[in-house]
Design a protein that fits this description.
Strand order of the largest sheet: 3-2-1-6-17-18
CATH superfamily of the largest domain: DD-peptidase/beta-lactamase superfamily
Number of helices: 17
Distance between the termini: 91 Å
Number of domains: 2
Structural class: alpha+beta
């Protein structure tokens, strides 16, 4: 009998240890993951009892605020977005039933006052209700509205970044949505064929067209494959991997240097240059610019898209038999986000150094005291300052006399590059053939802002459609 009791006790002990182990695993080891799981609504309902911190633009305009509903034990706070759809992206939404998204989700612990373990422990011991902290962003409401106005209802995006700080001043995405409508209309928004919940600035993936020539030129000049005086024959048409590749309008340029080629957006020059540089070096510089990895911005990683060369939805690298000549001109299977292309412009503008992009700037507690302040974080040295200077000179010519003249500003030199990618097979474009692009920065000699603008499904070009949009946003941020 004693043996049976001992065995039973042993089994119970083992089961207890297993139970304790699983409990510890789920409640301690995976606690953070569970809190972030969208299906786990308990933290969201608990958060309704907390006055969530206010989110503001750079000038103090309220983007998101929590208002009290009910009294006593039933009192809770509900999120309100006074600017409606203007910052549907990238701020997102926060509601008990629907969960959190984008900036609201990334900064959830700060906004609910749970970012400090000491404060959270004190609140638990004293029974006090946590108080959310407020966040000021770098976003500029006037410039964001300018981007919306100039997009004029067309699908697309505009991203504007301060090159030397990484502060994101504009992150516009159209179509947008009003986050106030999410509690009643989330299923309809999810089912909308225009995809208003897709943040095109950080999730939209498009062929970059000739804007990618800036990356190609950077790789070639910085690696020493060419210098600024190297001449390359640029006929009207080349045969690359058995297929013709032509300049726009069939133009033939003869022997030209990289500055002339960038100014005139000569495809045959850059296709030859891509093969000269080689796929290994090309991918190395893409990595330096931030391609082939999630961008380092303060938004949830699973709500960000990677820029790079894709096959069947997966990234490929230089060993996968890529057509480097067509990558060099922004074609092949290359897909990019507007944020990534704004980072390309920002790296050139910042003497070749890429700073991690940030939306937030300061955090304040309930008494208005600053508890955290964003400090710029260096991501990579993409190229030398000398290479960046050569590119700036060439990109300034693009705007002053080349394909980007519509991005010119009165009294301010602008550096930029246009791009027009053909998308004839894109179903949602219903036959409209182009993805129009412009990337650039201003003032060219002392950059304050770098920008990427793109428009989906258009008959226009980057120079005629995207460049004026970028110009308007740069003007708004440099006045």
């Amino acid at each position: 009998m004693n043996d049976r009791i001992s065995r039973l006790f042993g089994v119970i002990t083992v089961l207890f240890v297993i139970l304790a182990g699983f409990t510890a695993w789920w409640t301690v080891v995976r606690a953070e993951e569970l809190r972030g799981e969208q299906a786990n609504k308990r933290p969201l309902f608990e958060a309704q009892k907390v006055k969530r911190g206010t989110i503001r633009t750079s000038d103090g305009t309220v983007i998101a605020v929590s208002n009290p509903v009910g009294r006593g034990e039933s009192r809770r706070f509900v999120r309100d977005y006074p600017l409606g759809g203007l910052f549907g992206h990238p701020i997102g939404y926060s509601f008990a039933e629907q969960g959190n998204s984008e900036f609201e989700r990334y900064h959830n612990e700060t906004l609910t006052g749970e970012d400090s373990e000491v404060d959270s422990l004190i609140d638990q011991l004293t029974g006090a209700t946590p108080v959310g902290k407020s966040i000021t962003t770098a976003l500029d409401a006037d410039a964001q509205q300018t981007a919306f106005d100039l997009l004029a209802g067309q699908g697309g995006s505009v991203v504007a970044i301060e090159p030397d700080t990484g502060k994101v001043r504009v992150a516009a995405s159209l179509p947008t949505y009003d986050p106030n409508l999410v509690p009643e209309s989330l299923p309809e928004l999810n089912g909308d064929s225009s995809a208003p919940l897709l943040d095109r600035a950080t999730q939209g993936q498009y062929p970059p067209g000739s804007t990618f020539k800036v990356v190609t030129a950077a790789a070639a000049l910085d690696s020493g494959a060419i210098d600024s005086t190297t001449l390359i024959d640029s006929p009207s048409t080349l045969t690359i991997q058995g297929q013709p590749l032509s300049n726009f309008g069939g133009a033939s340029f003869g022997q030209i240097d990289v500055q002339t080629a960038l100014t005139n957006s000569a495809n045959t020059f850059f296709a030859t240059l891509g093969e000269t540089v080689g796929s290994d070096t090309m991918f190395e510089y893409m990595d330096r610019f931030g391609f082939n990895a999630k961008p380092r911005i303060d938004l949830p990683r699973d709500e960000l898209s990677v820029s790079g060369v894709f096959e069947g939805g997966s990234l490929v690298d230089s060993s996968d038999g890529v057509d480097v000549a067509r990558i060099a001109i922004g074609q092949e299977r290359l897909l990019v986000t507007p944020l990534q292309m704004a980072e390309v412009a920002a790296a050139v503008a910042n003497d070749g150094v890429l700073i991690e992009p940030r939306i937030w700037t300061t955090v304040r507690d309930a008494d208005g005291r600053v508890t955290a302040r964003m400090e710029p974080e260096r991501q990579s040295e993409v190229m030398s300052a000398a290479t960046a200077g050569e590119l700036t000179e060439a990109m300034t010519d693009v705007v002053s006399e080349g394909t980007g003249t519509a991005a010119a500003l009165s009294g301010i030199d602008v550096a930029g590059k246009t791009g027009t990618a053909e998308v004839p097979g894109r179903a949602e474009c219903e036959g409209l053939p182009n993805q129009a692009w412009f990337i650039g920065f201003a003032p060219a000699d002392d950059p304050e802002i770098a920008v990427a603008a793109t428009v989906e499904c258009t008959t226009g070009t980057g120079g005629s459609v995207a460049a004026p949009i970028a110009a308007g946003v740069m003007q708004a941020l440099t006045d």
